[in-house]
From TrEMBL:
Organism field: Micromonospora pattaloongensis
Lineage: Bacteria, Bacillati, Actinomycetota, Actinomycetes, Micromonosporales
Superkingdom of origin organism: Bacteria
Official protein name in the record: CubicO group peptidase, beta-lactamase class C family
Pfam short name (any one): Beta-lactamase
InterPro entries listed in its UniProt record: Beta-lactam-related, Beta-lactam/transpept-like, Diverse_Enzym_Activities
Ranges for domain Beta-lactamase-related: 22-403
Transmembrane segments: none
Amino acid sequence: MTIERTVDPEYVGFDSGRLARIDKHFARYVDDGRLAGWQIVVTRRGEIAHSSTYGLRDREAERPVTPDTLWRIYSMTKPITSVAAMMLWEEGRFQLTDEVSRWIPALGDVRVYDKGSALRPFTVPAVEPIRIWHLLTHTAGLTYGFMQTSVVDALYRAAGYDLYTPAGVDAAGACDAWARLPLLFQPGSAWGYSVATDVLGRLVEVVSGQSLDEFFAERIFGPLGMTDTRWWVEESDRSRLAALYSAHPVTGGAVPLAEAGARALAEPDLISGGGGLISTAGDYHRFTQMLLREGELDGARLLGSRTVRFMTRNHLPGGRDLAQLSTGGFAESILDGVGFGLGFAVVQDPVPSRVPSSVGEYYWGGVASTAFWVDPKEEITALLFTQLVPSSTHPLRPELRQLVYSALVD
């Protein structure tokens, strides 16, 4: 699916000259070698006001970024999984306060890290069970091995769970393995970015009776016309897939991650609700438009309007922000003035971040520097795609916000 501008920017309150600053600014990243290429889409009031590509999707093969380039979106999978779970919630299949162990029994007898080393950790019983809302808000006490900020992270890595999961392990097996590891904190007491959305994906499978890929295809991708979103890339589409890069530790230039990038070319053992999808700007644009329209797009309604509003409020305990509750080591998001809803970071106050946005804006991104946001107040959506790991390498996301909001003149 390609994606082109559908309206003159001035018609929806943008200044064309100011929007042009976006391409000029981000072109520098490619021209000096920090990025291979990128794609950016900005919409307002349902119309595409800016759509641009620059550079190469695969520098070594000399293939340019085109509108139909396939991007690994990693954690931008999480909002889709959260929508899937809430679709089942709307059917009355569970309550957000239900214990997850009702469907994933292994998570019914978890323990929490208290002190000690990775070789000799001391744990205590969980005083609160893991509930479904904990999974949606990353307050379950689970973690990621690649965070590398705690003893529990080290235990995940020792068990084979780093950026990727061990070969041959599916979602059910991974949940069993994570249940055997201690939690980082008592459920509901803090915020920690984690494998919680992978567990949520497994919950969707158990509750729906379908595999996660089947549920997504039937209930989300099909109705929204997301025909290019998939879990791996077949040979026929291989040339459309962007190459994966990281920053050289000395020069800062983008260098290929060939082995990690090749994972996208084979069917995965684990269909990851937390980070497994590959998509296009055109497809993810349709997903964000569904969100902006509060659950409906082109006659296909996935969620009720009140459900979307509920999901995009701050659900952190006590109404606190990520700066107050985060366990640290997290570079995906600005923490001050930002809460977390059911699958999205939610702006409570844009001032502490020193980056323009609106109260109530919600967003997320992926480890390869992809990002999106939805601003219901200004009726804006924005998409950024590139393939540089990790996402904290360059301030691409705040820079895009800065340029987009400074182009509004109505």
